[in-house]
Amino acid sequence: MGPGRRGRAVARRERTNDPEGLRRRIVEVAYAAFHARGYHATPLDVIRREAGVTGGAFSHHFPTKKALGLAVIRDRVARTVEQTWIEPLLAAPTAAEAVRAVLAGTLGELERRRAVTGCPLSNLALELSLHDRDFRVAVEALYARWRSAIAEKLRADVAAGRASTRDPDALATFVVAVYSGGMALAKASQRPAPLAACAEELVHLMNGPKGRTSATRRR
Amino acid sequence: MGPGRRGRAVARRERTNDPEGLRRRIVEVAYAAFHARGYHATPLDVIRREAGVTGGAFSHHFPTKKALGLAVIRDRVARTVEQTWIEPLLAAPTAAEAVRAVLAGTLGELERRRAVTGCPLSNLALELSLHDRDFRVAVEALYARWRSAIAEKLRADVAAGRASTRDPDALATFVVAVYSGGMALAKASQRPAPLAACAEELVHLMNGPKGRTSATRRR
Q1: CATH number, domain A4-63, options 1.10.3470, 3.30.530, 2.30.30, 1.10.10
Q2: pTM for the full predicted model
Q3: Which residues have a Cβ under 8 Å from the Cβ of B217 and sit 6 or more positions away?
Q4: Which 3 state secondary structure label does DSSP give A192?
């Protein structure tokens, strides 16, 4: 995760020429560390060292650990939500197909990696929601964005006759919960299997017997 | 959460007469603190103070923070899993009815409380699974117990003709994921509503059109 000698040289150059690039590098390193080890378990000087930044430059961008935590959620975790969920939702023909594709992609990635680090948003949500109100509001805004993107797609599916869903908002919340919970189980077992089981149940439920989002399952 | 003056007097007596009682008190205080604030964010001396215990007595029972963390998971979180899930599963006529009753009970409790602290097992699972192998194994054992109790009940339901389920193990994993994920969303929003939406979807799915566990939903 550390940038190594070349990384530090780049960091030094960026500190002079590219303060935005340096800021992004710090956020990237902090995102990886908070995601894998947790916010409280990661000392700031570990992030400083891994990003190859001087204390002065670091404090200039992030005077407090909280400021860095908020930037990680608002900038970097938000980007993960966009790339992992929002873009596939916009690209897929239906919400059901987007959910299937996202879960297949996530499972493929878990199979390739050695460690299951879990969902970055859920990790930080559970650790920080009660710790600080600003953290909680930042986390909740991303969950809201994620849920409303799924609900919107479901409503469009219903309007176009591509799905029948009792309550798009409830089903969207359900999808996010299944993904978050399935990731928690995968992280606890360090195997993708629990998320794979959840994916199968969820896709089955959303596709139904006629390929519709109607939650029907028969043996 | 602190025991107050009376609590400390009790703690002093227990230290002399009842080492097991003192140990239980420390685990109880640590459980509440780790659940609400997190393992890493809770300093040991806060737990010592809240439990009203001397440093010597504390170290006698728990020489390290890790030893205390493991005791919290294996003794106290395990008890929560038994009381919240395993006992209702044994008492209910079907798995679907147990899931409905547990979720209704949890939602009622969330409505009464001021803060949504989330699922104790998921909180510790996400924070500690990558931090330490022993923590991960302890957490995974509880998830396994929880999932297998649901799967066993589903199999009994199927055998008795009270439910039809494609894959009891996958559906059991799915139920645990929905509960864990719904609690994460409720914690992030500090409202029971997301868990209520998940509960409605899940109960609908498990009951199906003929009161069977067959995941059927129609508008």
Answers
A1: 1.10.10
A2: 0.88
A3: A166, A214, A215, A216, B204, B205, B208
A4: coil
In CATH terms, the superfamily for domain A73-207 is: Tetracycline Repressor, domain 2 (1.10.357.10)
Interface test with A, best of B103, B107, B126 (most A CBs within 10 A): B126
| C-alpha B13: how far from chain center | 30
Q: Which of B173, B181, B205 sits opposite A177 (nearest CB)?
A: B181
CB burial string A125-160: b at 16+ within 10 A, e below: bbbbbbbeeebbebbbebbeebbebbbbbbbebbee
Secondary-structure percent of chain A, ordered helix, strand, coil, rounded to 5:
75, 0, 25
3-state secondary structure of B70: helix
| pLDDT per position as a tens digit, B195-218 | 999 999 999 999 875 444 434 333
Instruction: For residue B2, count other CB atoms closer than 10 A to its CB.
Output: 12
Tens digit of pLDDT for each residue in B56-68?
Answer: 999 999 999 999 9
Residues of B in Cβ contact (< 8 Å) with A123? 126
- CATH architecture label of B74-207: Orthogonal Bundle (1.10)
d(CA B163, CA B157): 5
* Model confidence pLDDT, tens digit, residues A182-213: 999 999 999 999 999 999 999 999 987 544 44
Q: Nearest to residue B81, comparing CAs of B122, B130, B24?
A: B122
The domain locations on chain B are 4-63, 74-207
Q: Considering only CB atoms, which chain A residues are within 8 Å of B41?
A: 40, 127, 131
The mean of the pLDDT values for chain A is 89
CB-hemisphere CA count at 13 Å for A127? 27
What is the ipTM metric for this complex? 0.88
Q: Report the alpha-carbon distance of residue A113 to residue A130 in Å, rounded.
A: 31
Helix pair A95-112, A168-189: axis angle to 10 deg: 10
